[in-house]
């Protein structure tokens, strides 16, 4: 390794304390840049949403222009479809792709992703597809982190942290929710609660949130005013709602995966034409049921102010669900985050109306069930209960409902887990890896990578001496972090729960070493 490279593996290992401090400052830089890009993305989506409304008003006044609009949508669909075909990393949400990159099983060209996701997302979501901005925002932020690493020639372990920082910043800027951004990075993207990840991701999220609020103001994304706290004696209704959401979350996951399979089986329709199909459906919905177009932000807000009848809520729920499946299955650049929150809000609203009409429940609590259902439905689908609870808390700007949000999230999580449903992003990543084949190697044997693994309670490694473990080839355990201590391991060193193992390996072996050590360090019950 060259002595003139101050970011090499040697320096990262032997200057770990300064490395941590440097990551915090780099996280701030990544957060600021990611915040600016996501703010631009949000701004363009908001403007395109206003433009879309004006388009349908013009079409209603002058129906002869409808064929012109259909022609525009076909051009948009085909153009973005070609783009997705040649750059598959910009398709869909982007969160499974980022998880694959962090596991070193997928490769990503950061500048292509930023351009493709930004332009493709604005065209598709702006044209009315039922997809959200949050998944793309996470991927945009992660691509900024990777770009920062590439431009300044950081090593792979540093790049991994910077990608996580960017992902955290992306979600924070998308929803004005910095704490949720950090928790999502820890709970879903990075999948461990390393203090190093926490500090750097928090720095990035707060920076991005600052930039976002400078442009969009200090108000939360959803303003639910005058909510009354649900009494403790009515928590049984919250648990029941959690059970329903757990079941419906499993239905969402299974339907989404089957929709993707359905598209893939249509051999008569080339992949570049897939996006055209939901765009044409959006024309019909734009006249008949415009509430289901777009991510669903306006739909959620309208549920609080408007008293929709139960029948209309069920129609909205059914059509929004099917349209979201159709849009995401096509591979268009857009996420499921906001649409699933909108579907959850519809479920909660319908649930509240049923309680009011048939069980003489106080109607003042309907808005509570809308909020609770968003958190529970998110948890059932993504299986990130802490993120779900904090996200809805930050998005609504009130901590008064933290207990009820936690209860509904736990109930939904347990039910989804008992039904054997895989977390949606994990299932989508498995599909991506299955498509490309498991033998794809990222990197080369000359470069080295440093990996970090958290040892969970009940894992295979718990209580074992290092010499008693059969470590894979090309894998060197260089340090064990135990709290603030960093232990140079020997054969007699015993591994305890909560330890972080620092492993050195060849870059081309990272994927296999990741798979092996994740199984060894995770709880046997998981």
UniProtKB/TrEMBL annotation:
Q: Which UniProt keywords apply?
A: Chloride, Ion transport, Membrane, Transmembrane, Transmembrane helix, Transport
Keyword Ion transport listed? The answer is: yes
> Which residue numbers delimit the RCK C-terminal domain?
438-519
Gene Ontology cellular component terms for the protein in this record: plasma membrane
> Is Ion transport among the key words of this record?
yes
**Which terms does the record give in the GO molecular function aspect?**
monoatomic cation transmembrane transporter activity; voltage-gated chloride channel activity
Residues passing through the membrane, by range: 21-44, 64-84, 161-184, 235-252, 273-293, 299-323, 335-359, 365-386, 398-416
Membrane disposition: Multi-pass membrane protein
Name by which UniProt lists this protein: Voltage gated chloride channel family protein
> Organism source for this protein?
Candidatus Desulfosporosinus infrequens
